[in-house]
Amino acid sequence: MALATFEGSQTALRRLAMVLCATSLTVAASFMFATVVQADGFDWLDVVRITLMAIAAFWLAWGGCIAFFGILFPDESHPRSGPVPEGRTAVLLPIYNEATGPVFARLAAIMRSVGQLKAADQFDFFVLSDTTRLEVAEKERQAYEALLAQEGAGGRLFYRRREKNIGRKAGNIADFVTTSGGAYEYMLVLDADSLMEGETILEMVRRMEADPRLGLLQSLPRIIGLDTLFGRLLQFATSLYGPYFARGLAAVQGGEGSFWGHNALIRTRAFAASCGMAPLQGEPPFGGHILSHDTIEAALLARDGWTVRLDPDLTGSYEEAPANMVDYAKRDRRWCQGNLQHGRVLVAPRFRFWSRLAILQGIFAYLASPIWFLFLIASLAAPLAAPAPVYFDGHSPFPVFPHPETATALALLFGLVALLILPKLLLAIRALADGSTAEFGGPLRLLVSFLLETVLTSMLAPLHMMFTCRSVVQVLTGADSGWPAAERDDGSLSFATSLSATWWIVVTGVAGILFSNYFVPELFYWLLPVAVPMALAPVLIWSTASVSLGKATARIGLFAVPADQKPVAVAAEMHNVLNAAATEPAPALVSEAIA
Amino acid sequence: MTDHETPGPDASGEPCGHEPLFPEIRTVLKRPDLSDAVLRDVLAENRLTLCAGLDLNGFLSGAGTADTRARVIRSMVVPPPQHGLKMPAHDLSPPLSVRFGPAVAWCRNVLEALIAPGKRRTAPVAAHIRNR
């Protein structure tokens, strides 16, 4: 009890420090910006710009503070040993029209990894299919029967398919809970692209058994298995910076942590009692079933007094990610709708303050882009709307020139860039200092990778902003103009696909350059870092989706990650299963039904 | 609705002749919850993956080593444990009257507590007493 109170007050202090830190940075940035914009007079457009800048700066400062906290607070890793757990665990794999082969290969790899544990009998596996395409459903059934026979997993491996995917993934999990949930103390929720090592799963169960108030334990999934340049960038960033960001997040959120929807262990009875969600009144996009259910489920558990915790030391947890920017934007479009829908539940009864903040953070992850875009437009329009300078105010015979604020503007720009880059730079320096560069290809390769990653992500950032703006507009207007279909399994894109996905970004970028050149030449060079990548969007997207470029960086050791040096066992097993399925015929002789 | 219907009791309830296998199946699968009716359905509806040297009749008549028989049994598709939990649906966007209900009740209590001391505590004097 005393320990819980101490931890609670410690978390409260950290939160207070973080809010103060982010607020101070925001106030400083807003003050500097106000100083800059009032140099040519003060009008209503300046108020809009300062407000937009303040909101966007707070968002940046918040992210920067999370990273700083991750560097400040030590790694709280626990030894991985303990008794064999008593409670049974259901490993849940919800799927929806996925590629059957890889999904079942991942499951086979996880089952084999769990099968090596002493406590293997405590785990059952459920494939919860919401697949709507009948041909995919038939493949799933065949793959299930083959895996069952191969692993001898009768009574431990189950497959069921819902014909109507009511409530999507949340409804799928709820269906399991209401039919079989009572037979299991815990359930491990996976995604179709999840991979987890048996030891990690066992450790999660041990931690949950050791803390009877722990309702949800989130592991830290690491991105693996991508070959494109974009994919390798993502892998590098999540491997080098991800653990520190997660540590910072865990330090401030305490027992009201996050649920990322997968690779997490949940106490089944707590989930059943707390996490049922009635559909929201009204029509989509803001009504109907709650789409991004994970954040809300975490808030519901915390509301009922359950601890929701992110343990960043829980490695051995993996996921795949979109291999190119277009697929990334498609996924973001789905998440955007779900997160904006959370505006309806932000003021739900009895939610904890930090849960509301986490929901607000999720909403702002998508609103930040339109805010930056509006800020850019307002900044381009401001010089046109500004009053003409008054050189003779009538009090002095000499002309009075406006005070140039270039130094302040540069300081502000430097500050904002520092908020984005400094945490990453500190993390790279830390890796260089503590000698952990071997996992990232050595000091020189790490440094070059860091610089290249910073340059490339800075160039991709305006495209991300534009895609997110489009998603927000589509959600708010209920429109969806569609996406080009995925062409290749390896994640690469043709130039035509890249162009068809980004032509409107090119038009916006070129229009911005022309506008500033003719009407606000004083902002021309300031706009280029944003407008040039937009004008080059198809080239950037096509080249970062290239597998050959990705493999070339791998050959010379750039964007190296620990998984390159020491292959992930469970991922290697998954590839073995896939290769075996491709080369070997089905080994089993299947008899006729016993009628 | 799922493809795996909840296996209810066999409509006919008649023995199928494979009943001697049932305890063995329950033991191998560590599923004592599987009833005779469920196992009858399992054997009727599903296929068995047989090993070399053990045909269907042999399996049904109890032939084969324990290990070989266990392998066949472990290839059976059996239903998951049927033990559902109730999952009440929480309304996250209730009407304003519900949302502010507790606040309104609290205000009412506070008001009553404030007004109560100001109220006249003595009972009004009846007219016939006052006129005495």
Structure, explained:
Chain A: This is Glucans biosynthesis glucosyltransferase H. The complex is a heterodimer of chains A (595) and B (132). In chain A, 59% of the residues lie in helices and 8% in strands. Chain A has 595 residues and is an alpha/beta fold. Chain A has a domain at 89-324: Spore Coat Polysaccharide Biosynthesis Protein SpsA, Chain A, CATH 3.90.550.10. In chain A, the strands form two sheets. In chain A, strands 3-2-1-4-8-6-9 form a seven-stranded mixed sheet, sandwiched between helices. Chain A has a three-stranded mixed sheet with strand order 5-10-7. The radius of gyration of chain A is 26 Å and the shape is globular. With 132 residues, chain B is an all-alpha fold. Helix content of chain B is 41%, strand content 2%. Strand 11 (589-590) of chain A pairs antiparallel with strand 1 of chain B, so a sheet runs across the interface.
How would you summarize the topology of this molecule?
The complex is a heterodimer of chains A (595) and B (132).
Chain A: H1 2-37, H2 44-72, E1 89-95, H3 100-115, E2 123-129, H4 134-151, E3 157-161, H5 168-180, E4 186-189, E5 194-196, H6 198-210, E6 214-218, E7 222-223, H7 229-240, H8 242-253, E8 264-267, H9 268-274, H10 293-303, E9 307-310, E10 317-319, H11 325-341, H12 353-385, H13 406-433, H14 443-477, H15 495-518, H16 524-535, H17 537-544, H18 547-555, H19 562-565, H20 569-583, E11 589-590
Parallel strand pairs in A: 1-2, 1-4, 2-3, 6-9, 7-10
Antiparallel strand pairs in A: 4-8, 5-10, 6-8
Chain B: H1 22-29, H2 36-45, E1 49-50, H3 56-60, H4 66-73, H5 96-99, H6 101-115, H7 127-130
List keywords for this structure.
heterodimer, A: about 600 residues, alpha/beta, 7-stranded mixed β-sheet, 11 strands, B: about 130 residues, mainly alpha, about 40% helix
**Proportion in helices of chain B:** 40-55%
Mean pLDDT figure of chain B: 78
Largest sheet of chain B: none
Under CATH, the homologous superfamily of the domain at 89-324 in chain A reads Spore Coat Polysaccharide Biosynthesis Protein SpsA, Chain A
> What is the overall number of helices of chain A?
20
Give the radius of gyration of chain A: 26 Å
**CATH architecture label of the domain at 89-324 in chain A:** Alpha-Beta Complex
Provide the helix percentage of chain A. Answer: 55-70%
- Identify the quaternary structure here: heterodimer
Poorly predicted sequence stretches spanning 5 or more consecutive residues of chain B: 1-12
Q: Cα distance, first to last residue of chain A? A: 61 Å
Q: Class of the domain at 89-324 in chain A in CATH?
A: Alpha Beta
Largest sheet of chain A: 7 strands, mixed
Distance linking N and C termini of chain B? 84 Å
Order of helices and strands of chain B: HHEHHHHH
- State mean pLDDT of chain A (0 to 100 scale): 89
The percentage of residues in β strands of chain B lies in under 5%
Number of beta-strand segments of chain A: 11
Membrane topology (chain A): Multi-pass membrane protein
Subcellular location (chain A): Cell inner membrane
Family (chain A): Belongs to the glycosyltransferase 2 family. OpgH subfamily.
Keywords (chain A): Cell inner membrane, Cell membrane, Glycosyltransferase, Membrane, Transferase, Transmembrane, Transmembrane helix
